């Protein structure tokens, strides 16, 4: 089998070179910070949004007071970190995006 052949070849190479394979060591927080924040404003503005994401039926559109926004952001941050700890990165990213939208709304309303 090709997979076994490659695995044996890699293990032989690692033994020759004295390499001990190690798992990737990254904090969940580091992974979460790799989202849209790393992109420049111009890149975010030029991003193409899939048609399915333009108006999702699960999304609610409400106007919050600043106090309500703070509470909602805190709640979503808790959920985001919970999802990240459970290695549910797609769900955590969705919460991160929702938080960013609420923060923008907070800035606009303030």
Structural summary, described in words:
It contains six helices and no strands. By secondary structure, the protein is mainly α. The chain has a domain at 62-109: UVR domain (DNA Excision Repair, Uvrb, Chain A), CATH 4.10.860.10. Helix 5 runs antiparallel to helix 6 (89-109). The protein is rod-shaped. The N and C termini lie far apart (63 Å). The mean pLDDT is 78. It comes from Vibrio anguillarum. Residues 1-25 are annotated as: Disordered. InterPro entries: UVR_dom, UVR_dom_sf, UvrB, UvrB_YAD/RRR_dom.
Layout of helices and strands:
Layout: H1 2-17, H2 28-32, H3 41-46, H4 51-54, H5 66-85, H6 89-109
GO biological process, one term: SOS response
Region (Disordered): 1-25
Protein name: Excinuclease ABC subunit B
How would a textbook summarize the main sheet?
none
Number of strands: 0
CATH fold-level topology of one domain = DNA Excision Repair, Uvrb, Chain A
Quaternary structure annotation: single chain
CATH-level-2 architecture of one domain: Irregular
Cα radius of gyration in angstroms: 21 Å
Fraction in beta strands? under 5%
Instruction: Give the helix level as a range of percent.
Output: 55-70%
| Class computed from helices, strands and strand pairing | mainly alpha
Order of helices and strands: HHHHHH
- Taking pLDDT < 50 over at least 5 consecutive residues as the criterion, the unreliable ranges are none
Gross morphology: rod-shaped
How far from one another are the termini? 63 Å
* Overall residue-averaged pLDDT value: 78
Individual helix count: 6
Fourth-level CATH superfamily of one domain: UVR domain
CATH class category name of one domain: Few Secondary Structures
Protein name: Excinuclease ABC subunit B
GO biological process, one term: SOS response
GO molecular function: ATP binding; ATP hydrolysis activity; DNA binding; nuclease activity
Keywords: DNA damage, DNA excision, DNA repair, Excision nuclease, SOS response
